[in-house]
Every structure is written in C-alpha cells, then in structure tokens.
C-alpha cells in the first residue's frame, strides 16, 4: 500500500519499493543508537558528554555519527554556546518529538518482552 506524500515532493511512497526514500528514514530510526539517543533527548536538551555517559558501549565516533544523521534528518538540533570551553547541546525538534512516541513504545516493548525471548532462545541474553 502506498501513501500520498504530504510535502508534494513525491506522488507516493511505498516503503516496500526498492528505491523509496522512506527506507533511508527507516534505516536511521531502526538503528539502536538513534532510538536510544532520541529517548535520552525526550526530556529536553542534553550535552554530548551526558549523552555519551547515558549510552554505555557507544564510542564518541559512533555518537557523533548518530547525532549528525539525526540532525541531517531534522529530528534534532545542535546548539553551540560561546562559552569557554564551548558548550554544545542537542535537542529534539518538533519532528523528533513526534517520532519519540513510537520509539518509546518500541523501547518499552523490548524491555517488557526480552525475558520471553531469552527463555525461548538463551543466545539473546
């Protein structure tokens, strides 16, 4: 099933279509780091160091890459303050807030159901 694009840039979108640009967006949002960064930003602006500290296991390089991708998709903003040393904060845009709702549901579903999955397949533990 395809949907009419509200921006008028495309007639229709079909995420199952090989060349549909929606696939790039799904790839970004389905990435674990993107989903987790968006979750950390749900309560307001956060500095880079706090994001890194809130995401054990992520490298600074991967966090930077994830933030840049989210910013390029207009899901977050990056604000640089002229302090010494410079202070940078990241915040969800209105579009980012709108996607945070289904991503929060997905994160909650994962937490609620991981025990069922590991009971069937211990390699998920």
Automatic annotation (TrEMBL):
<keyword id="KW-0804">Transcription</keyword>
<dbReference type="Pfam" id="PF01638">
    <property type="entry name" value="HxlR"/>
</dbReference>
<dbReference type="InterPro" id="IPR036390">
    <property type="entry name" value="WH_DNA-bd_sf"/>
</dbReference>
<dbReference type="InterPro" id="IPR036388">
    <property type="entry name" value="WH-like_DNA-bd_sf"/>
</dbReference>
<keyword id="KW-0378">Hydrolase</keyword>
<protein>
    <submittedName>
        <fullName>Cinnamoyl ester hydrolase</fullName>
    </submittedName>
</protein>
<dbReference type="InterPro" id="IPR002577">
    <property type="entry name" value="HTH_HxlR"/>
</dbReference>
<keyword id="KW-0805">Transcription regulation</keyword>
<dbReference type="GO" id="GO:0003677">
    <property type="term" value="F:DNA binding"/>
</dbReference>
<dbReference type="GO" id="GO:0016787">
    <property type="term" value="F:hydrolase activity"/>
</dbReference>
<keyword id="KW-0238">DNA-binding</keyword>
<feature type="domain" description="HTH hxlR-type">
    <location>
        <begin position="20"/>
        <end position="118"/>
    </location>
</feature>
């Amino acid at each position: 099933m395809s949907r009419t694009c509200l921006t008028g840039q495309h007639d229709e979108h079909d995420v199952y279509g090989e060349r549909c640009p929606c696939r790039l967006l799904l790839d970004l949002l389905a990435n674990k780091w993107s989903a987790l960064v968006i979750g950390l930003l749900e309560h307001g602006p956060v500095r880079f160091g706090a994001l890194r500290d809130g995401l054990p296991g992520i490298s600074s390089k991967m966090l930077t890459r994830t933030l840049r991708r989210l910013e390029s998709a207009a899901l977050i903003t990056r604000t640089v303050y002229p302090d010494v040393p410079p202070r940078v904060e990241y915040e969800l845009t209105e579009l980012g807030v709108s996607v945070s709702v289904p991503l929060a549901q997905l994160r909650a579903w994962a937490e609620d159901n991981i025990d069922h999955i590991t009971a069937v397949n211990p390699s998920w533990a």
